[in-house]
Structure formats: structure tokens, C-alpha cells
Amino acid sequence: MGISQVFCHALGPILLYSFERAQYADLLERHTGSELASIYGGEHLLRLLLRFPDMLREAVAVKDTTDKQQHATHRQLLARLIEFMHDGQAQLLAPVYENCTPAYLRLSALAGV
Predict the structure, then answer these.
(1) pTM for the complete prediction?
(2) Contact, 81 vs 49, CB < 8 A?
(3) pLDDT tens per residue, range 4-18
């Protein structure tokens, strides 16, 4: 499973804040799962990268030397990806974070998502 697939699987249940899930539900009706990786940006990928170590611990029990070596390799790759995103943040991240309007927050709360 590639990072894009992990991202798409984790997006709804793990990466989105509760008030973002109404928009996500609407997007799911209009787009396939793989398209969502191109809709949600670098900020959401960073959320995944921050959660990734915990996800790896849950998915792979670090029992023997081979598992420990694989875990170390994953950590190194994760660190390189975070460094890449840091170096390219001007291209990968929104220059200004837009807060949700109070109306959107009310709508999200009413939807119970």
C-alpha cells in the first residue's frame, strides 16, 4: 500500500477535524477515493506524517531485529519526507490558513458529522 492509499484510507476517520467531515462527506459523493489525495493539500499530508509513527506501531509489532531495522528505515523515510515538505513548504502548503466561517461550523455541528 502506497502513501497515497494510506492517505485516502486515513483521511476521513483519522486526519480530518470534526468540522471538516461535512465537506468530506460531500466530496465523497462527487469524487473517487484516489481523487481525494489531489483535493486535500499538504496540510493534511502533514497531519498524516505526524500520526504515522503511531500508525506504524499499531500495524507492525517491533519484535525482532528485522522488525526493528524496518521500523528504523520507516522513521528515516518519514524524517526525509518531513524535511522535503519543510524545504518545499512554499509550493506544498497554503500561504494563509483560512478559518471556517461561523455559518459553516454551525452547519457541520447540525450535520452531526
Answers:
(1) 0.72
(2) yes
(3) 888 888 888 888 888
